[in-house]
Amino acid sequence: MTERIQEFLRARRREGRDNGPCLVVDLDVVRDNYRDFSRALPDTRVYYAVKANPAPEVLSLLASLGSSFDTASVAEIELALAAGASPERISFGNTIKKERDVARAYQLGVRLFAVDSEAEVEKIARVAPRSKVFCRILCDGSGAEWPLSRKFGCAPEMAPRVLELAQANGLIAYGLSFHVGSQQPNPRMWDKALESCANIFRELAERGVYLQMVNLGGGFPTRYLKSVPKVRIYGNAIFRALSKHFGNRLPETIIEPGRGMVGNAGIIEAEVVLISKKSDDDPLRWVFLDIGKFNGLAETTDEMIRYPIRTPVDGAAVGPCVIAGPSCDSVDILYEKTPYELPVSLEIGAKVLIEGTGAYTTTYSSIAFNGFPPLEAYVI
Would you state the pLDDT for residue 148? Predict the structure, then answer.
């Protein structure tokens, strides 16, 4: 929580605009995070993952600082271009793309595409000739709070065939990528994936295909309830792994921070709608907020992301609570398996602050489920 956000919320209340939950993002924090990434891996290009928070103000700031952009759709490509990024600073990093979207990206000037299958290579070869492609490989993402295995990437032993096909079809077999899982608390998880990449580099070089780049992915965490290592710790661990597996012939590298870039820059202010019990002898209170899974907190699914929640009466005696959202849907329960300890004196109508919500909230918010409007957002 920054003083700028606190003052913004105070002004919002004074002006009577606090009639629903809202997200406030502090650009000063985003700026500091970008500089931390740049210092931690000074020879690595930053490709901000637009999907984490595509607010135009965030993208414009990062573009002005020199960031490149990892995009998942044509719409995100257009947002990055509108923010001031040139096409050579944009990667179409989704491995699942319609051929017409590849063609549109190519028309917009994008020349860097992710693949993880031969069929995807063939699409790109048809409509985006002479583009660079990098192949995403599966890797171990154990320990991550939001795993990203299975759906994206191919087995490492399949990658050489995919990239050989790319080169045979007139594309530039540019490199490899992987993702160790979002909110990855272990800086050593990049080591094994880089070992696989180095092996693929050597295998393809023996066949006359010379790769240049390794996309180290995202995974860099933000702080929620648990402390996480500083970005420089990740940078040191990654550099050691690169040197260990590639020796003195280090490849070009890029990173795709999303959560780690904007997560701690945002705070959601919400309101307690109801506090109740399910029976007279129930030890748990149910605390219902005016925001839930369908209003931006989708990452509470299976309680994978556990956001810090601050109340006006912190420091008072606490008791266990189930926390739920406002919608008429039984899955709209945020935390039940592991109840939250909230003050016993918390009252209906109180404002609570949900910290670490700068990433993956506004874009997960539904348009009008149960008639609730999308999550209101402000960038300051």
Answer: 62
Query: How many Cα atoms within 13 Å fall on the side-chain side of residue 325?
Result: 24
Return the H-helix or E-strand segment holding 213. strand 213-215
Cβ pair 10, 351 in contact under 8 A: no
What residues in the chain have per-residue pLDDT under 50?
none
**What phi and psi, each to the nearest 5 degrees, are found at residue 286?**
-100, 120
Helix, strand, or coil here: 14?
A: helix
Structure tokens at 279: 């029976």
Q: How many residues does the chain have?
A: 380
Name the token pair of 183: 């909110």
Which two structure tokens, joined as six digits, stand for 265? Answer: 């820059």
Catalytic residue list contains 139:
no
- Provide the residue ranges of all domains of the chain, joining segments of one domain with +: 3-23+264-379, 28-262
Identify the pLDDT of residue 350. Answer: 97
Tokens for 52, please give them: 């984490």
Element (H, E) at 196: helix 190-206
What is the model's pLDDT at position 227?
87
CATH superfamily of 28-262: Alanine racemase (3.20.20.10)
pLDDT of amino acid 144: 61
Strand 333-343 with 213-215, pairing: unpaired
- Reference 75, options 59, 62, 88; nearest CA is 59
Question: Residues near 272 by Cβ (< 8 Å), separated by ≥ 6?
Answer: 287, 288, 289, 346, 347, 348, 349, 350, 351, 352
* Amino acid letter, residue 67: S
Q: What is the CATH number of domain 3-23+264-379?
A: 2.40.37.10
**Helix, strand, coil: what percent of the chain each, to 5?**
35, 25, 40
pLDDT at 353: 98
pTM of the model: 0.95
How far is the first Cα of the chain from the last one, in angstroms, to the nearest whole number? Answer: 13
243: how many CB neighbours lie within 10 A of its CB? 12
Provide the 3-class DSSP secondary structure of residue 188.
helix
Catalytic residue among 139, 154, 197, 328: 328
Q: Would you state the pLDDT for residue 149?
A: 65
Q: At what angle do helices 190-206 and 159-168 cross, to 10 degrees?
A: 50
Q: What angle do CA 193, 220, 90 make, to 5 degrees?
A: 85
Please give the single-letter amino acid code of residue 203.
E
> Could you give phi then psi for residue 80, rounded to 5 degrees?
-65, -40
